[in-house]
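hey can u check if this looks right to u? its 749 residues, i copy pasted from the old doc so theres a chance i mangled smth
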Amino acid sequence: MPSAEILRFRPLSKQGLHWAIVLLAFALRWPLPLPEWTHVDERALIMYPLGFWGGDFNPHFFHYPALTLYLCSALYYVYFLLLGAGSLEYFVAYRYFVDPSDLLTIARTANALVSAVTVAVCMAIGSRLYGRTGGRLAGLLLAVMPLHARFASLAITDVAAGLCAALAVLYGVRAIQEDARGDWVLAGLWAGLAAASKYPAGLVLVAVLAGCALARRWRWLWLPAAAAALAFAVASPYTLLDWAGFREAFGRMAGEHLASDGHAAAEVSWWYWLHHNLRYGLGWGGLLALPVALVWPGQRRREEWVVIVAVALFAAMLFAASSVFMRYAQPLVPLLAVLLARWGAALPRGGWLALWLALMLAEPLHATLRQRALLSRVDTRVQARDWLAANAPQGQRIVQVPKDAGQVPLFTAEQVFVRMDPFIDSFGVEGLERALQELAEGPPLPPLYVDWTLRSYREMDLAPEPGHKVLVLRYTHPLTATDVADSLAFAAAEPAVKWLAHFSGGRPQDAIFDEVDWHFAPIGRFGAVARSGPTLRIGALPWYQSEPLPTGRELFAAYGLLLAANQAARAERWAEAARLYKGLLDSPLMLNELFTVSYMYQMLLGMGAAFDNLGAEEAASEAWLLAAETEPQEAEPYFQLGKLLAERGQYEESVKYYLMAEEREPDDMVLLYNLGAGLLQLGRHGEAAARFERAAALDPSVENLLSLTVAYGRSGQRERAQTAFARARAMAPDHPQVAAIARMLAGQR
């Protein structure tokens, strides 16, 4: 917890301004309504914290350290206990797969409080360095800064990292001033917690160690270092306990953010930060005042260097990395506010200070207030969602163009699919089975929509029929990603579109946007923008198909049936598996739209195996042919078809399918063995020998060597046959086939 000093504003009558600044900060950070502005990274603070409830506290996710995930998990569990309604399984499943809005509100509210406390910490640092006036100025600057306020109402890890880094600096400053060994320990602990919130925030430890060195407390250097290491290990333990997973994920993430172009702007990062992130995050006054604050005359005390070193480190990291997301500056911003307050605190009270305040506060305050006004209105994507709920039936087929342009917050089959594997990782297959059952039998669910692609639409029969249509959600936005394939497909389909609704944020091209992290709303010139979100049109394309549209309950029931069928097939309960698979196939629902391609493929493979083991060969063959059509690049369906035909003695057809499987999996030993055996049956001995050679190279087993011997012998390669046979006989002299093959080779002499 933060030091009591931070919030010890006494006497109250003299500290009212401090409290007013903190309350102002909290008011400017109060969470906005959901889901008007949902950031793509917020889902991590839902999925992984809920995943701990399965009993595995390893997040299996190391893009973030675990501290924030653990804290969110605890908050959600308290909320579940207070709610007192429904089973744990249903609570988790609904928020995992359907709607996590209430949990996002909790996480956002917590971050708003954390951000307001950060303002209090900023005041404490400023007060220690520049007196009461300096503290108030630092807190006031941070309270209104868009670069800080705009992220505080989001469920992201950066906010907590900023608080912990600021606390580390505060205790580093206090340790120098009061020469207190305990404060060096506390500074290290907060530095470790900063790293456990967001890895780069741990750089603040270097500033703490630099302060310790400047204070000439060399023998105490190990105290903050050890405290930081301990705090990090306790708060994010699986970075050590699952070292291999952490190292792999951290290496990949470092490459993406430090060197990759994926998160980079068109300009070099340092220039982007100066003229865009810091310009609109601090305002012109704050940006231009920074160099003045750094060189303002007056003797600089040792403890001030803790702040300066931390600023230099964080700035260097931001300027050097390829990623230019504004939220990454959260550990830096409170320290910038402190440095800016140095200049203000040195000015004489009266006109000069009033002018300074006007220059420093006017633009940031206006931007922050305008931003909140903008984001408090209904986002264009939410307008579209509400229109769909009122005008489109459950199961309505929709196409979103472009696909990655800040999606409308809909409940879709695709959304459920992408979360099923992480759910299994945390709760197991049985847990998922129970969750699906609860969702299928529980209270009513929001309207379900079916995500389509324009390619899917183009491949269908387009003969119009009243009552059947595909809805098109078309985005236009200065930062909308341009997908050439999407654009071409839409251009071909657009003449058939009947436009039904239009939602606009105004003239977004006249606003200043975050060019990289485009999930955010404008941060500068808002005059021409009425609301957040892209300009969005909804249209309808004619389409003919007669299958019924599913409800959310039907979706989860179908998923549960598929899961149970796959489980039965894995356990070789073939009759049960066949019955469950047949139940799915007999469903009137369009399974190819509800299930992803991979799920359809697994279903058809399992169905083929079940029918085959029950002796229903025609049904098995049909299922495997459908599996081959579903995933044409996969070898398994062709292998199974070849194996089935070989068991019937239809070697010509069998080899045909084996060869198709070989094209897709040329180094599968079992496939090569079976293909070789089929080729022997057809008298194609040389081709058989080539397959057995490859099989024996992959697995020099007795069976492969003996088969190779036979193939060599029948193709007239007597010496090779003898060599292969000698290896096999030396390996297993008592093998039942050894004597027979020996007689065959003797007869060839």
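The two ends are 90 Å apart (CA to CA).
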